[in-house]
Amino acid sequence: MPKVGMPKIRKPQLVQATMTVIDRVGLHAASISLISKEAGVSTGIINHYFGGKHGLLEETMREILRQLSETITGRLRELPADAHKQRINAIIDGNFVGFQAENKVAKTWLAFWSYSMHDQQLKRLQRVNERRLLSHLLIELKALFAKEQAEVVAHGIASLIDGIWLRGTLNPDGIDAEKARTIINDYLDKQLTFYSQK
Asked: Which residue range forms the structural domain that includes residue 105?
């Protein structure tokens, strides 16, 4: 975590530099030296405020998660509480458009996703993100399905979001938000039909 009193301009500057360097050379080669050079600061600034590379990586992931959360909650605030399918689409879109769809952000996400399997703090942040996604989905899905079925569908949608996002990140053409929305809505419509016939 960055120390209290860090100039507000420095933190975003270092986070952006971290993502730029990860985009260019990958997570393992993203050294403090390269990041500080990209940000135009001394390596001592990073060590002082973040305690080294790991602290800066953690703050970068926190910033990506903050941006994701703000995008989704902002979109949900604009919609009526009973517009459940529209609200589900707002959650889907939040994962595929804007900041999250930027190439360097997507590559940083992918690097963290892999790295979090071997790092407890990053794994914890990844779990927080997963729980938040499921929570957002369940609020809407419980209005459309029984509780047990809503949980199954929420996990299905979350898996589709992750899978489509992963494929899009590895695709040179990037993430296609419209296609993601179409695929996930097709799944949702089939689940609504299936459970309504039971």
From this structure: 61-196
pTM for the model stands at: 0.86
What are residue 127's phi and psi, to 5 degrees?
Answer: -70, -40
Please give the angle made by the CA atoms of 119, 113 and 147, to the nearest 5 degrees. Answer: 105
Angle CA 95–96–99, to nearest 5: 85
Domain count, the chain: 1
Given a cut of 50, the residues of the chain with pLDDT beneath it are 1-5
H/E stretch holding 130: helix 120-141
* Alpha-carbon separation of residue 161 from 89, 115, 165 (angstroms): 11, 20, 6
55-86 pLDDT, tens digit each: 999 999 999 999 999 999 999 999 999 999 99
Residues 6 or more apart in contact with residue 139 via CB below 8 angstroms: none
Pair 136, 76: CB distance under 8 Å: yes
Q: Is the torsion defined by CA of 38, 44, 50, 53 positive or negative?
A: positive
Residue 10 lies in a domain: no
> Contact 3/48 with Cβ under 8 angstroms?
yes
